[in-house]
Every structure is written in C-alpha cells, then in structure tokens.
Design goal:
Blueprint lengths: L1 E7 H5 L6 E3 L4 E5 L8 E5 L2 H12 L12 E4 L2 E6 L2 H14 L10 E7 L2
Antiparallel strand pairs: 1-7, 2-3, 3-4, 5-6
Length: about 120
Amino acid sequence: MGYNGAYWREEVTILSIEDIEYKSDSIVVSIPKTKNSVPRQFLITDQHWVDLIKKYANLRPKTVTHKRFFLTYRSGCCVNSPIGINSVGKVPKEIAVFLKLPNPEVPHIWLIMVVIY
C-alpha cells in the first residue's frame, strides 16, 4: 500500500504551516491552492517520514514572521526567509543527479512517493 502524487513547484513553495495537521501517528497535508483549482489532501503514515517532518517543523525559529513551511537555510542555520520557487524547482534535478539517473533535466514538478511497508 502506498501513496504517490505530483506537485507543482508553486504548490510546494506556498505550503503553509497551517496546511499541515499533525496526528499522533500520521500527518495530513492539504494543498488548498492548486494549478487546476481543485484542492487536494494526502496522508503520510510511514513513521520514518512522520518523524522527519516533525523534526524539521520543530527546527523552525520562534522569530519567523511568515507562515510558509519551507525555510531557507544558510551556513547550517534556518533563517526567517522562506525558500523561493526557483530553489524548490531545482530540487528534483539535484535528486536525479545525486541518484545518477539518466536525463536529470526533469519538469518543475515534485514527484512524491511514499511506500508503506
């Protein structure tokens, strides 16, 4: 059993802390503003990913003045600036290069696959 989906870089960029609902053993992520104007939700149940996302969220400085979920890291520190759309758009290519996949030039969408064992 698993979940997979594709997300545009715009959707990932504007993801807000209010779009993420933490449950004891899962996380519900809402994508309210989509390119096709149809809101979506998905559930993360793999405990490894739940723990990683909670750990990332807990690193958020108390001084952040906006609600975007993904923040910029500089010199190993999280700063008040949200990550930009172009930085988000580079991530799939960086992953493909790291994995040594053929043709790492991929469209600006995020492919998320979570396999539940």
